[in-house]
Amino acid sequence: MVYIALLFLLIGIELIYFKIAEKYNIIDKPNSRSSHSAITLRGGGIIFPIAISIAFFLGYVSWPVALAVVLVAIVSFVDDIKPLSQLPRFASHVVAVGLVFYDLHLFSEALWLLPLVFVLLIGWVNAFNFMDGINGITVLYALTAIVSFSFLRINEASLPLLITLGLSCFSFGLFNVRKKAKTFAGDVGSISMALFLGYFMIKTIIDSGQLGYILFFSVYGIDAIITIINRLLKKENIFQPHRSHLYQYLANEMGYSHILISFIYAGLQLGINALVIYADTKGYLSLFFTGAFLLLLTFIYLLVRNLVTRKMVLRNS
């Protein structure tokens, strides 16, 4: 009953936000880099940090993690309304990562580990944000990760927190996983969710001692990294908006349904996560397995990307 009440509360908060966004014209206008063509309410992902705040008051999450998520959410929301320079955004990310490190007691670990985890977490937050480009992709992928974390026995004590965030995804998804979305997550949603997922990934790896769970983020990770490498080779500014991800090629150039692509990405990741969990229960989830599986996924991704780009060239010739 508590979770049913929480679900209706989150949906109600989302509806109230829509009224505020409409009144103050918080909208996303399509441009040449966009994958959508209609003006849409921006910032519906504000429900994610709100859910974290509720989880904190219910005692489901610690204050450093809640503060970290809310901090990046506030700065990102301001950026959604009026674009900020890189400095305040990066500064909020640095402080938030510091709070995550404090919560996970990483400052007591070897000094060489901190810069590595810092770069990976900052990279993940930005990669997750860049991947937010079509209806449904962010919320479905986030929900896939949350469900997968929930299946791990080591996360049993965190189930109330994971369920709360899962309900926020469902609430947002009602208005985003549509052919014509009512709202987009905005940076406030994608960055706050990315930070939470990154935190929970590090927590899961520490608690389990199993690095192989990094495969839970493999679909997004491979698409983001290969796209960045490809743009660097073309001497493009990787910090500028673009339409170079594989999912963007499929949606914009090949004309596939946004919702179909989003479900394919989430479905593939869910299948991989199920395999990872199974491999761990059988004792196969070693560093060799993780590395070999990443190489295999990267090879498959490159094959598909090459096939799609060839079809794009043929269609445009």
From TrEMBL:
The lineage of its organism: Bacteria, Pseudomonadati, Bacteroidota, Flavobacteriia, Flavobacteriales. Keywords: Cell membrane, Magnesium, Membrane, Metal-binding, Transferase, Transmembrane, Transmembrane helix. It is a multi-pass membrane protein. Mg(2+) binds at residues 129, 187. Its cofactor is Mg(2+). GO terms for molecular function: metal ion binding; phosphotransferase activity, for other substituted phosphate groups. One of its GO terms (biological process) is lipopolysaccharide biosynthetic process. InterPro entries: Glycosyl_transferase_4. It is found in: Cell membrane. The keyword Transferase applies. This is UDP-N-acetylmuramyl pentapeptide phosphotransferase/UDP-N-acetylglucosamine-1-phosphate transferase. The chain crosses the membrane at residues 45-75, 110-127, 134-152, 158-177, 184-202, 214-233, 254-278, 284-304. Pfam families: Glycos_transf_4 (PF00953). Its main location: membrane. One of its GO terms (cellular component) is plasma membrane.
